[in-house]
Design goal:
35% of the residues lie in helices and 14% in strands. By secondary structure, the protein is α/β, with parallel strands linked by helices. It has one domain: Alpha/Beta hydrolase fold, catalytic domain (Rossmann fold). Strands 1-2-4-3-5-6-7-8 form an eight-stranded mixed beta sheet, sandwiched between helices. Strand 1 (6-11) and strand 2 form a beta hairpin. The longest helix is centred in the C-terminal third of the chain and has 15 residues, at 322-336.
């Protein structure tokens, strides 16, 4: 049975969340949470598949993106507010619990939901960005860097240098992305390659270069679209949304380190996650490098029921390798949630 992908909105006095839905309204919600600088549309390869398997597949536009609420202050993009958005969405769906799936910045959102609202989770799955119980901030992840690749005297912040660039040069970061958004999208959304293994990621030199695109370069260069990740229609959707809203909201997610750390600290009693957890490593994701480095260590130490799978992809895993991602998710769902599997 095939299901249409429907457009919906959850509205409260504090926030509006636009979302895509696919599947029977009374089925168990499987909520897909995108990251930077994406959209609900990023889960286009997952929604109909998991609806067909009997779940209610949901993908929201996150705060600052697409047709969801847009705000004008950095502090409006702290994880505490974003987590509240997701709980309001779950309430609007009429469900007590969901299975949550995150990627990129969507992963810290899902980890936060697991910490702050474990009673609203059947389980959680995340792509690329592992669990950092005390908060996904540069201060907490730089100490886990692979200093064989990033010698401290040359790369003090390792591959996380770009996150400090937002703090120190926020307006310049936004301006460079917005100078040619079509080029920015085509440059960012690229497949992974084994050629980069063991080499510094480009994100390690953003401050040294004075920007993302190299010394003195104020806009993304003209790169061909990578068809392994995006079709022309896919690229158009991202470009249209980012041209409409700009990068202030997406980039502001990086500006709340202290607030996000304090938020995690308040849930310290729940740092150990007891629900089923799935983590998908991107073998060719050299920013969130979790296969060889110690970055996944805190997750392994704080998850009681952890399943790990390596996917031979870069960072944009759900779009680059959808069959692998869908297979890993379906296998985990079947193993961990037989009572929720339709028809069981």
């Amino acid at each position: 049975m095939t299901f249409p992908v429907l457009e919906n909105a959850s509205k409260s006095a504090r926030h509006t969340t636009f979302y895509l839905s696919c599947g029977k309204p009374d089925a168990t919600p499987l909520i897909f949470v995108h990251g930077w600088p994406e959209l609900s549309y990023s889960w286009r390869h997952q929604l109909p598949v998991f609806a067909g398997l009997g779940f209610r597949a949901i993908a929201p536009d996150m705060r600052g993106y697409g047709r969801s609420g847009i705000y004008g202050r950095h502090e409006d993009y702290a994880l505490e507010h974003i987590t509240a958005d997701m709980i309001e969405l779950l309430d609007a769906l009429g469900a007590e619990k969901a299975i949550w799936v995150g990627h990129d910045w969507g992963s810290p959102v899902v980890w936060s939901i697991a910490q702050q609202h474990p009673d609203r989770c059947h389980g959680v799955a995340n792509l690329c960005v592992p669990y950092i119980p005390h908060g996904f901030t540069p201060e907490n992840i730089v100490p886990l860097a692979d200093r064989g690749i990033y010698p401290e005297d040359k790369f003090s912040a390792a591959q996380w240098d770009y996150q400090y660039f937002y703090r120190e040069n926020f307006a310049a970061a936004c301006a460079a992305f917005e100078a040619n958004i079509s080029n920015t999208v085509r440059l960012l959304f690229r497949a992974g390659s084994p050629d980069g293994k063991g080499k510094p990621a480009i994100t390690a030199t953003v401050r040294t270069n004075g920007g993302w695109f190299g010394p003195g370069v104020k806009a993304a260069p003209d790169f061909p679209r990578d068809p392994a990740v995006l079709s022309e229609e896919d690229a158009h959707r991202y470009v249209a949304a980012l041209e409409r809203n700009g990068f202030f909201g997406p980039d502001s997610w990086y500006m709340n380190g202290p607030a996000n750390t304090a938020y995690a600290e308040r849930a310290k009693a729940n740092w150990r996650l007891n629900m089923p957890v799935l983590f998908l490593h991107g073998e060719y994701d050299y920013v969130c490098e979790t296969v060889e480095s110690r970055l996944a260590g805190p997750m392994r130490a704080h998850c009681a029921n952890l399943t790990e799978t390596i996917v031979k992809s870069g960072h944009w895993m759900a779009q680059e390798k959808p069959l692998d991602v869908n297979a890993a998710l379906a296998k985990w769902l079947g193993a961990q949630f037989p009572q929720l599997w339709p028809g069981a």
